[in-house]
Amino acid sequence: LLLDGARLRLVHPWTPRLYYCGDRRARAQAEALLHGIRTPTATRLTARRDLLRGEIEVVEVAVADPMAFSRVVARLAGICGLVFYNCDIALAQMYLYEHRLFPLGRCEVETTPQGTIRRIAPLECPWEREYTAPPLGVLRLRCDGDPANPNHGRRAALHVAVDGEASTLTGDTPADLLEALDRWIRRYDPDVILTEWGDSFLFPRLRRLAAACGRPLALNRDGGTGMRTRRPRSYVTYGQIVYTAGGSYLRGRWHLDAANSFAYEEAELPGLLELARLSRIPVQHMARTSVGTAITSMQLDQAYQDGILIPWRKSRPEAFKSGSDLLLTDRGGLTYTPLIGAFEQVGELDFAAMYPAMMNRFNISQETVNCACCREVPDARVPGVPHHLCQRRRGLTPRVLERVLERRAYYKARRAATAGAERHLYDMRQTALKWIGVVSFGYQGYKNARFGQIEAHECTTALGREMLLRAKDVAESQGYTMLHALVDSVWLTRPGATRADYEALAQAIVRATDLPIAVEGVYRWIAFVPSRTHPLVGVPNRYFGVFEDGTEKVRGIELRRGDTPSIVAAMQRRMLDVLFEAGTLAEARARFPALEALLAEQIVRLRQHEVRAEELVIRTVLSQDPREYERGIPQAVAAHQLVHAGVTLHPGEMIEYIITNAAAKIPAERAAAYARLPSDWCYDVDRYTLMLRRAVDTLLAPFRAATAQSRILAPAEPRTGEALS
């Protein structure tokens, strides 16, 4: 993309390289194999640095044809006794690492008249905070109407839009439809085709239509190349099964599927481009991969620039631990069970990006945990676990996180100082970086993380527990009562405490922990919701409240759940609006009759059958293959209906259904798939009424608990704990 807006297709001859080491016999076998294959390769003996072992002697293998690189690796992998490095990095990323390039980065290029790159060099660094993305033409493509998953049966016309101009594409034949779409693409020549359900529905069907009609569709800018695709898959992460749709990748322009991109969903195009720049991952791939892959790529890039070899497989297994050791070390973050009830003038203090900040502050990385050089240094010990951290050399992971944390702090400051579109830009960028911080800690314990280590994960959680306990001690020494604590946040109260008092407390905690903590706000009132099954026990992540400035905070209740029907969520939203107008708990209780009226209104609508189908839809993720369900639960019934209609479903995929008769003896009558809703459909009035009543009870239960609670427990004595300087 030239500065004048012209688009060029250039080719850069490039030779990727891998490394291996091993005993003399294995190396001789590898040398013989490389001489015997057709792909030209060049080898040389050299020295490179291993992150854990230091400088080692390795054989460098340069593969002349990048497309044959994976085949060469596969052949070499069959030789026993070899250890491989830099051999399974995505070639596009390896190219960008090696040339220090990144998506949408300005660069200087010297080419031949035939379009071959002789030399290419970056003109900027991906870590520059202020940059302007080039203007990109975006063509939007989706099914008209309801945004429900069209793979489950809904059919609609194709809607296209560019620069405020929109149209619904029609035609008497499939060929007419393809010609209409082709005209839009040729007319605007977009850089980005942004779709909804493009990976799993639109592009596969457009390709099939084009093949059936015998006419090409100009989705690629490179007319002579095909479309690269990726198969869908289901996998388990953090105890949950997740489904990702396949991918349809264009050449010469980008295809982004808003329904198949976590990064785009959370941070839109500015956040997606921010992640692609920093991770040096091509934009189409970044849109379809996890944020964890982005932080891993940042680490790989840092290692590449430092001349550190990147291991093929994780080479440092978890050390043996006894059962008692596991009980001591494998405990996760600290969570207090909240005092149930509603409280006034509560201050919330949040550690800023606590876990990544600790990894940066305390130098937590694979190579710094239990290092040989600091084993006897008292200040290096981690409180509560039998580990220590290096104090002599800076770790790879903290070096990456330090820049991420500083960059996000800058964007948050710019967001506060700007307005309108500029504020939105900074907000999306900092949101993308927020997720980098969230996953950076978890990836330390991921079994396949290149530079991860479970002991690093344990050090982080141990320090998190220690810092939260220090914060508790400081607060209680000043007369505050801790109502709740959740990993990196604390909720405190003290009679008569003002915003200034909470700010002073935050500064005292900073001095005690050496970690940034800020006052999130002071609540007019906040309510901690009890468990429905155990009414005397609070639920850590279920609460709602309103700050002094009118900002609200709602977590974990029906309104925030993805499986709540919109009739329930909308009613609870209106009820919260009524409650949040109250400045005190007494005023909030005075509004209870208004809540009862809102409930009665929705029950009347249900009983008079005035509710639309979309208001009743329940969205649930399939925990297994539909054929494996044995009980007639609603999601299983709906899944079976879709399968019988010819729909292919995968574990981890979301389905939508309406409860028709929850008590029916015949399982098939209990629910109906929303995408295949029959014309004579009905719904279970009693079941949806129960959902409405439960949503109201969620809001009222804390107030009942507050009335029954006679007093708040007095502050405990400060705890004397270990310290890590």
Structural summary, described in words:
The chain has 725 residues and is of the alpha+beta class. Among the domains are: 17-88, 2-Layer Sandwich (Alpha-Beta Plaits), CATH 3.30.70; 138-305, 2-Layer Sandwich (Nucleotidyltransferase, domain 5); 341-605, B family DNA polymerase, palm domain (Palm domain of DNA polymerase, Alpha-Beta Complex), CATH 3.90.1600. The two termini are 51 Å apart. Residues 709-725 have low confidence and may be disordered. Keywords: DNA-binding, DNA-directed DNA polymerase, Nucleotidyltransferase, Transferase. InterPro entries: DNA-dir_DNA_pol_B, DNA-dir_DNA_pol_B_multi_dom, DNA/RNA_pol_sf, DNA_pol_B_thumb, DNA_pol_palm_dom_sf, DNA_pol_type-B, RNaseH-like_sf, RNaseH_sf.
Keywords:
six-stranded antiparallel beta sheet; DNA-binding; Alpha-Beta Plaits; 725 residues; five-stranded mixed beta sheet; globular; alpha+beta; Palm domain of DNA polymerase; nucleotide binding
Short description:
By secondary structure, the chain is α+β, with helices and mostly antiparallel strands.
Strand order in space, largest sheet: 17-18-16-19-20-21
- What is the fold-level CATH name, i.e. the topology of the domain at 341-605? Palm domain of DNA polymerase
Number of DSSP helices? 19
Overall strand count: 24
> CATH architecture of the domain at 341-605, please?
Alpha-Beta Complex
Largest sheet data: 6 strands, antiparallel
The CATH superfamily of the domain at 341-605 appears as B family DNA polymerase, palm domain
The CATH C-level name of the domain at 341-605 is Alpha Beta
Q: Helix proportion of residues, in percent?
A: 25-40%
Q: Show unreliable segments.
A: 709-725
> From the alpha-carbon coordinates, what is the Rg to the nearest angstrom?
29 Å
| Overall form | globular
